[in-house]
C-alpha cells in the first residue's frame, strides 16, 4: 500500500524525497508546539514514567542542561583555556 | 580575572532574546504531575517529599492560614530547585538577581500584612507596641517597630540574593585558586581542593536551607497576621 509523502515517518522517507518532505512539515506555531509536546512525552514515557525509574532519566536532562549552558557561555570561556601565554 | 568573575551573573540573552525566561521555567519541567493513584517511582518519591514538607510547615497555622499551603509549597519547591540547579557547572541561577527576589518577597509579605489589617485590624496595629513599655518611650518605639516591619521584605530578598551569590563567588574563586596553584605546589593545591569539596557540600545545604528559610519566614508573617 502506498503511503503519501506527507504522512511518512522520517526513517521511511527516501533520501531524494527529503527536501520536499521537510518543506511539507507543519511550521505553524501550533505545529511547533505539537512537536515539542510529542518530544517531551516520548522522553517522559520512555525514561521517567516507568515503574522503577532511576537516576539515569533525570541526569540525562541535567547533562543536556549543562551542555546548553556551556554552549551559551562559550564565548567567555574561550579565554580560559590552559595556555602558557594568555 | 575580575571581569570573568562576574560574567556568570549576567542575565543571559541569546541574539537579543531573553532566554532567562526559559531558564526560569526549566525547573518546572523536572516535577512531573501525579496523574494516578499509584505512580512511577520517581513521582512517588516527589509526592512523599512534598507531603512531608507540607505537613511540617503548615501544621502551625489555623484553618485560614492553611489556605496558603499551595503558595508556600510552590515557593519552597521553586527556590530549592532553582538554587540546586545553579550548582551545576556553567548554569545561571535566577535567584542571584535581586530583582527576582524582590519580586517574590514584596508581594508575599504585603499579602500577609494586608490580610492582617483587614481581618484583625486591632491586633495587627497592636504589634507596633510591645507590652509593658514605659510611657515616655512609646513614640520612639512605634517608629522603630514600623521600620522593622518595612524592612522585612528587603531582608527576605537581600538574604537570599547575598547567600547564593556569595556561595557561587567563593566556588569560582577557590576553584580558580586551585587551578593556579597546581603548577606551583601540588600539596597546597590539594588542600585547596579539599576546601573546594567541603564548600560544595555546604552550598548544597545552603541551597536547600535558603529556600526553607524564605518560606518559613513568609509563613511566620502569615501566622502573625491571619
From TrEMBL, chain A:
Membrane topology according to the record: Single-pass membrane protein
Primary role: Subunit f, of the mitochondrial membrane ATP synthase complex (F(1)F(0) ATP synthase or Complex V) that produces ATP from ADP in the presence of a proton gradient across the membrane which is generated by electron transport complexes of the respiratory chain. ATP synthase complex consist of a soluble F(1) head domain - the catalytic core - and a membrane F(1) domain - the membrane proton channel. These two domains are linked by a central stalk rotating inside the F(1) region and a stationary peripheral stalk.
Similarity annotation: Belongs to the ATPase F chain family.
Compartments (UniProt record): Mitochondrion inner membrane
Membrane-spanning segments: 53-71
Gene Ontology terms: cellular component: mitochondrial inner membrane; proton-transporting ATP synthase complex
Subunit structure: Component of the ATP synthase complex composed at least of ATP5F1A/subunit alpha, ATP5F1B/subunit beta, ATP5MC1/subunit c (homooctomer), MT-ATP6/subunit a, MT-ATP8/subunit 8, ATP5ME/subunit e, ATP5MF/subunit f, ATP5MG/subunit g, ATP5MK/subunit k, ATP5MJ/subunit j, ATP5F1C/subunit gamma, ATP5F1D/subunit delta, ATP5F1E/subunit epsilon, ATP5PF/subunit F6, ATP5PB/subunit b, ATP5PD/subunit d, ATP5PO/subunit OSCP.
Signal peptide as annotated in the record: none
Pfam families cross-referenced by the UniProt entry: WRW
Organism domain of life: Eukaryota
Keywords, alphabetical: Acetylation, ATP synthesis, CF(0), Hydrogen ion transport, Ion transport, Membrane, Mitochondrion, Mitochondrion inner membrane, Phosphoprotein, Transmembrane, Transmembrane helix, Transport
A molecular function GO annotation: proton-transporting ATP synthase activity, rotational mechanism
Protein name: ATP synthase F(0) complex subunit f, mitochondrial
Keyword match Lipid biosynthesis: no
Single GO biological process annotation from the record: proton motive force-driven mitochondrial ATP synthesis
InterPro entries xrefs: F1F0-ATPsyn_F_prd
From TrEMBL, chain B:
GO molecular-function terms, A-Z: proton-transporting ATP synthase activity, rotational mechanism
Mode of membrane association: Multi-pass membrane protein
Keywords tagged on the record: ATP synthesis, CF(0), Hydrogen ion transport, Ion transport, Membrane, Mitochondrion, Mitochondrion inner membrane, Transmembrane, Transmembrane helix, Transport
GO cellular component: mitochondrial inner membrane; proton-transporting ATP synthase complex
Transmembrane region(s): 6-31, 67-86, 98-117, 137-158, 164-182, 189-222
Location(s) in or outside the cell: Mitochondrion inner membrane
Pfam families noted in UniProt: ATP-synt_A
Location, primary (coarse class): mitochondrion
Keyword Magnesium: no
Reactions performed catalytically: H(+)(in) = H(+)(out)
Keyword Mitochondrion: yes
PANTHER family associated with the record: ATP SYNTHASE SUBUNIT A
Complexes and interactors: Component of the ATP synthase complex composed at least of ATP5F1A/subunit alpha, ATP5F1B/subunit beta, ATP5MC1/subunit c (homooctomer), MT-ATP6/subunit a, MT-ATP8/subunit 8, ATP5ME/subunit e, ATP5MF/subunit f, ATP5MG/subunit g, ATP5MK/subunit k, ATP5MJ/subunit j, ATP5F1C/subunit gamma, ATP5F1D/subunit delta, ATP5F1E/subunit epsilon, ATP5PF/subunit F6, ATP5PB/subunit b, ATP5PD/subunit d, ATP5PO/subunit OSCP.
Family, as annotated: Belongs to the ATPase A chain family.
Protein name (Swiss-Prot/TrEMBL): ATP synthase subunit a
Amino acid at each position: 500500500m502506498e503511503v503519501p509523502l506527507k504522512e511518512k515517518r522520517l526513517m521511511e522517507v527516501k533520501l531524494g524525497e527529503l527536501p520536499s518532505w521537510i518543506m511539507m512539515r507543519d511550521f505553524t506555531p501550533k505545529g511547533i508546539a505539537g512537536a515539542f509536546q510529542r518530544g517531551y512525552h516520548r522522553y517522559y514515557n520512555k525514561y521517567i514514567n516507568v515503574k522503577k525509574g532511576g537516576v539515569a532519566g533525570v541526569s540525562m536532562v541535567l547533562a543536556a542542561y549543562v551542555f546548553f549552558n556551556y554552549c551559551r557561555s562559550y564565548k567567555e570561556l574561550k579565554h580560559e583555556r590552559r595556555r602558557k601565554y594568555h | 580575572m575580575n571581569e570573568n568573575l562576574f560574567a556568570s551573573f549576567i542575565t543571559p540573552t541569546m541574539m537579543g532574546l531573553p532566554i532567562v525566561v526559559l531558564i526560569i521555567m526549566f525547573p518546572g519541567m523536572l516535577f512531573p504531575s501525579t496523574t494516578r493513584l499509584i505512580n512511577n517511582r520517581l513521582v512517588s518519591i516527589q509526592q512523599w517529599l512534598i507531603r512531608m514538607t507540607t505537613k511540617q510547615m503548615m501544621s502551625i497555622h489555623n484553618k485560614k492560614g492553611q489556605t496558603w499551603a499551595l503558595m508556600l509549597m510552590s515557593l519552597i519547591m521553586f527556590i530549592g530547585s532553582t538554587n540546586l540547579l545553579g550548582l551545576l557547572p556553567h548554569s545561571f541561577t535566577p535567584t542571584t538577581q535581586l530583582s527576582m527576589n524582590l519580586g517574590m518577597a514584596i508581594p508575599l509579605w504585603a499579602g500577609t500584612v494586608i490580610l492582617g489589617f483587614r481581618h484583625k485590624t486591632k491586633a495587627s496595629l497592636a504589634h507596633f507596641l510591645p507590652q509593658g513599655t514605659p510611657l515616655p518611650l512609646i513614640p520612639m518605639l512605634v517608629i522603630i517597630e514600623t521600620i522593622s516591619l518595612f524592612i522585612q521584605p528587603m531582608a527576605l530578598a537581600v538574604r537570599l540574593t547575598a547567600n547564593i551569590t556569595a556561595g557561587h563567588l567563593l566556588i569560582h574563586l577557590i576553584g580558580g585558586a586551585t587551578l593556579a596553584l597546581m603548577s606551583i605546589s601540588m600539596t597546597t593545591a590539594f588542600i585547596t581542593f579539599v576546601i573546594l569539596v567541603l564548600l560544595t557540600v555546604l552550598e548544597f545545604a545552603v541551597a536547600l536551607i535558603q529556600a526553607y528559610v524564605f518560606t518559613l519566614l513568609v509563613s511566620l508573617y502569615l501566622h502573625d497576621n491571619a
